[in-house]
Write a structure and sequence with these properties.
alpha+beta, Arc Repressor Mutant, subunit A, four-stranded antiparallel beta sheet, 13 helices, about 5% strand
Amino acid sequence: MRLCGPSTLIPWNVSIKTRRRFTRVSGNQTGELTIKEIKKKPSSVVVVFSSGEKWNLSPSTFTESPLYEGKTLTEKEAADLLRFQQEEEYYDKALALLEKQNYTVSVLSRKLLDKGANKAQVSSICLRLQEEGLLDDKRYAKTYAEDVARIRCLGKRRVLFDLKKKGIRDDILSSLSFPEEAELEKAREAANLFDRKYARATNLSKKAKVIKNLMERGFSEEIARQAANEKVTMNDVEDEKARLRASYELAQIRYGRKYEGYEKKKRVVAYLLKQGYRYEDILALSGEED
């Protein structure tokens, strides 16, 4: 079973029902705010004022304040109603985001701020979502550390770095568990991928590249070396020598066009070292040629 590969954060098993909310206002918003008519629709309530102005409110906004035909709203009531309706609109945007993927409180807050919500609205919405069980940094961190890290083959250091970047608190990070055997198993799986990626590299450079890549994925040097030692496939000795000779001849032609003597030999050796061949093998081959 292949564990590693690109993946988004695994969704929690939470059902989110999208509720459409509207804040559409027609008219010049001047004149008396006396309710003339109330029209109930499946997803909204249209409040018509005697001035001709119309407000489309969500059902939850409509029930927030007792509204009835003939009632005259004070300026404060009107302002509070529209403020509540605006927060409901941003709450709906937050739900839409959470339907697509999971977020931390910090990341979701930034997205709502980018959409125009103010800090007070964001704070209220995030608190509401946490109370409803739709936003939970502890659950996010645990899911990321266990499931996402397993699928993407990420080590402890990378997981902690990613979660810190997403705004997870230090006390939550310190509560996460990274068993050594689980870390090693992820590293082995990643080492298999890198072994195939660097199949044409020399024995020396292949193992070094695999270890480097594993450490970049967040594994400790000890885990990376153990996984590389177990999973990296070494080239046949004779095949390695044939590759060295082919690279040597190519370098001789390449640098022989511009250099000669010691300068040419120095550049050929430097080129082969960069390709991952051992210095002793290079000298032995150049000695044979000489």
